[in-house]
Design brief:
- Helix 1 runs antiparallel to helix 2.
- This protein has a single domain, classed as Sandwich (Jelly Rolls), CATH 2.60.120.10.
- Strand 1 and strand 2 form a beta hairpin.
- The protein is built from 3 helices and 10 strands.
- It is globular.
- By secondary structure, it is α+β, with helices and mostly antiparallel strands.
Length: 166
């Protein structure tokens, strides 16, 4: 773990300790955008890697995780939220298109829920977006891209629910 990512993690920790809600997350988003403007950092921390997702920093006290992603080509994910947690996506290279969704029908234990797309926008290098608890989204890429994602809790799909597009 580089000194720069350790410093970033400590600053995120300090912000979220003082402001654990949406306003603190917005400050973290701004901090991530500053970090993504540093071309040397992006080149070093998000250098080519075999795995598409790598843990860059994990906060033992607050539980957030900073992940580095390197996508070699096109990829599309299904509509999802992050369960009981939030996430911040920050674009380092390439472009990520983000679809946002509204829930039309809530999921139950017996069947998946249903969603309808409300907007699509681009995340371009140096920009980040916050998805608070329950915010339905689905990122997709048409080519190679690198990004940093901050998860507000454990990595994985625990608590996430399947949704179908209507």
């Amino acid at each position: 773990m580089s000194q720069r990512i350790q410093e970033f993690g400590r600053r995120v920790h300090d912000i979220l300790s003082a402001e654990p809600g949406p306003s603190g997350r917005d400050r973290v988003r701004s901090l991530l955008e500053e970090l993504l403007q540093d071309e040397a950092f992006v080149a070093e921390e998000l250098a080519p890697q075999e795995e598409q997702r790598r843990v860059l920093y994990k906060d033992a006290e607050l539980g957030f995780v900073v992940l580095g992603h390197a996508f070699p080509g096109p990829r599309r994910t299904k509509p999802h939220d992050h369960g009981a947690y939030w996430a911040i996506y920050g674009q380092a290279t390439g472009t990520t298109f983000m679809d946002e969704w509204e829930i039309v029908e809530k999921a139950t234990a017996e069947r998946p829920g249903k969603v309808r797309k409300i907007t699509t926008y681009e995340l371009t290098p140096g920009h980040a977006r916050t998805y608070n608890e329950g915010a339905m989204h689905s990122p997709w890429r048409e080519g190679p891209a690198k990004m940093i994602r901050i998860e507000g809790g454990p990595i994985g799909r625990e608590g996430q629910i399947e949704y179908e597009i209507v």
